[in-house]
């Protein structure tokens, strides 16, 4: 729309009300009107594609052939039905086969096996589709049938990622910026993307499993979009419950699990070098009185530019759930620092033992109680966290120039340095660079003007005077203005914090 058109529309307010309203609707839906020629062939293909992406379920012919191959290779003896259907993946129950290939051998041999993967794929293309198997998988698991069939067979959970293009689009942001997946050229091909995704879950699971510090299902095998892992069950064919469905015995147990998950988050970050990035009561199973972490496909390493944002989100979700359960929680900021700090003051236990860490959490972290705590958490949530300037992407630049972010270093600097020595691992230079750069932007681009919006008139007057200024005097004046601004900035409260605090005081009235 041209400027003139817009101007014409402005005059509409003189017209009767209804017409004005019509124009408003027109404005709103204008972009939806298709003015280009209709093309039947094109729309047909698009529709087909869309159907394939969303409607087609996980059990496409290729996946079916691969599942069949799993049985013929003896990894799995029987599939027994569906445990869970989700947006991104379905999970099935299966019995282990008698292949010696699975278990520990697979965990180690995996890396080399990847090389000749494509060759195997071709073999599977020749396999006929087993329609009985398909039917079995399409029905919900009925545990009462299982126990009759077999009591002593090893059980597996088989997670099959959907080949849906639509859902997987969003996943690039988790894989982008991951050092481990830097060589994958296939991020825009959904089939390959999904393969990377399943592999990512397998590798994350394996890393946590091998660290031995946090309970997770044992990873068995991954190929294409299929991940095989240990099944966490109650022993009667039913899957162990998610934390969300767990029937707590008493309040003590709620506290116990809250403190444990806070300890897990630290172990995951410090020992496994991962941030879960989708942690909630849905992705924790209670198995044999222990919490097991599942669904780690989107987990990222601390080096990922968004890792700290994901960590903060995890903490928020966990706190939200346990607050709902009616127990005292810790401030989000305190948990964050507990997780990322290298060392913990007054901690005499084993840094790899979640029992020791849980006891420490229970006895040392302060409870969130005052309004001040909530205000601080709110500010903490609004902070834009980056490890260093390298983690800053172009799209974040606006937020950066608006002052809407903090380097971790400055966040931690407020606290007892001994207690939270994590500050040391972050890049000091990066922060210096920020301040300098910030100076440059504000001083050169805005040339001595003040932040506070002064009246138009007064600005005019000053400008008039400047025109007759001698060169040296101008230089001196500019330098003085620069110095004064720098001084002022030292004590200036950041805009977004100011805004928060103002809001807070207003709402108290
Ligand atoms: N190893 C396992 N043992 C027992 N049950 C499992 C196991 N893994 C997954 N499940 C069950 O399957 C459900 C979904 O698994 P998961 O969280 O890994 O998939 P998802 O990615 O969340 O799927 P979506 O996000 O599409 O819902 C879990 O909530 C759990 O009930
Ligand atoms: Mg899940």
UniProtKB/TrEMBL annotation:
Gene3D superfamilies, A to Z: Phosphorylase Kinase, domain 1, Transferase(Phosphotransferase) domain 1
Cellular component terms (Gene Ontology): cytosol; fungal-type vacuole; kinetochore; mitochondrion; nucleolar chromatin
Domain of life: Eukaryota
Record: active site: 278, 295
Pfam family, one: RIO1
RIO kinase domain location: 48-341
Positions bound to ATP: 159, 232
Reaction(s) the record says it catalyses: ATP + H2O = ADP + phosphate + H(+); L-threonyl-[protein] + ATP = O-phospho-L-threonyl-[protein] + ADP + H(+); L-seryl-[protein] + ATP = O-phospho-L-seryl-[protein] + ADP + H(+)
Basic and acidic residues: bias regions: 458-486
Region (Disordered) location: 110-131, 423-509
Bias (Acidic residues) ranges: 110-127, 434-457
SUPFAM superfamilies: Protein kinase-like (PK-like)
PANTHER family per record: SERINE/THREONINE-PROTEIN KINASE RIO1
Protein name, as recorded: Serine/threonine-protein kinase RIO1
Annotated organism of origin: Naumovozyma castellii (Yeast)
Taxonomic placement: Eukaryota, Fungi, Dikarya, Ascomycota, Saccharomycotina
